[in-house]
Amino acid sequence: MSDLLTVRGLRKSFGTLEVLRDIGFDVPAGTVTAVIGPSGSGKTTVLRALNALDRADAGVITIGDLAVDFGAPVDRSTLARFRSRTAMVFQSHNLFPHRTVLENVIEGPVIVQRRPRADATADARRLLDQVGLAEKADQYPYQLSGGQQQRVGIARALALDPQLMLFDEPTSALDPELVGDVLRVIKDLATAGRTMVIVTHEIRFAQQVADQVLFVDGGVVAESGPPSRVLVEPERPRTRQFLKRIL
Ligand code: ADP
């Protein structure tokens, strides 16, 4: 299978704090990559670099046929094209509180992508149906549970029609009983062949859904491979220690 995403030599510091020293990995098209690791190890920083929310100091990220070298100046149109290939689902949904669910989902396509409103609305209704919220289209975010809001966040990201979906701990802000519904939606997307990179603490979920697991530690991908290896029989003592602590 060909790679949709390749990352080479990714580096990022905040002031004197070197967070990413040399991150490299590949994500084949149609697969799910789970990113795990200790708190503060730089998982979110990797994700934010992948959609250039924070620009890496160095490294080449290739998404599809577009390779961007962040060690060199990047012009605005290239950056815009690069960003449009991914969509991020955050820890908490960041929905616009004064807009309905449907309006939240069509905002990106209509305002950013300048798509006709009728088309965007039809797509949004289909996506809301896909995340199990067809009947909530005309409600406001405050009328929804945290898990439902997070599923709207997923529909909103899908509405941008990205090649690659990025999830930053999509269930960590939710009450435990709401986690399952969100994970189910992500699993459905995986089954449908969506390419996704998911930062998660849900090890059991990673085991079920991921094709590969990256253990980020010390600014590098310290261990990677299929979940049956990394999560069950890790080679490195650091990985073993980490899993023991959180399982
Ligand atoms: P993780 O997602 O693995 O918990 P993060 O990527 O959020 O880790 O953060 C890695 C390190 O970078 C942490 O020490 C964090 O405090 C620091 N960091 C993240 N973002 C910023 C920022 N915008 N400014 C300064 N430090 C940051």
From TrEMBL:
<keyword id="KW-0472">Membrane</keyword>
<keyword id="KW-0547">Nucleotide-binding</keyword>
<dbReference type="GO" id="GO:0005524">
    <property type="term" value="F:ATP binding"/>
</dbReference>
<dbReference type="GO" id="GO:0015424">
    <property type="term" value="F:ABC-type amino acid transporter activity"/>
</dbReference>
<dbReference type="GO" id="GO:0005886">
    <property type="term" value="C:plasma membrane"/>
</dbReference>
<dbReference type="InterPro" id="IPR003593">
    <property type="entry name" value="AAA+_ATPase"/>
</dbReference>
<keyword id="KW-1003">Cell membrane</keyword>
<keyword id="KW-0067">ATP-binding</keyword>
<dbReference type="InterPro" id="IPR003439">
    <property type="entry name" value="ABC_transporter-like_ATP-bd"/>
</dbReference>
<protein>
    <submittedName>
        <fullName>Amino acid ABC transporter ATP-binding protein (PAAT family)</fullName>
        <ecNumber>3.6.3.-</ecNumber>
    </submittedName>
</protein>
<feature type="domain" description="ABC transporter">
    <location>
        <begin position="5"/>
        <end position="243"/>
    </location>
</feature>
<keyword id="KW-0813">Transport</keyword>
<dbReference type="InterPro" id="IPR030679">
    <property type="entry name" value="ABC_ATPase_HisP-typ"/>
</dbReference>
<dbReference type="InterPro" id="IPR017871">
    <property type="entry name" value="ABC_transporter-like_CS"/>
</dbReference>
<dbReference type="InterPro" id="IPR027417">
    <property type="entry name" value="P-loop_NTPase"/>
</dbReference>
<dbReference type="Pfam" id="PF00005">
    <property type="entry name" value="ABC_tran"/>
</dbReference>
<dbReference type="GO" id="GO:0016887">
    <property type="term" value="F:ATP hydrolysis activity"/>
</dbReference>
<keyword id="KW-0378">Hydrolase</keyword>
<dbReference type="InterPro" id="IPR050086">
    <property type="entry name" value="MetN_ABC_transporter-like"/>
</dbReference>
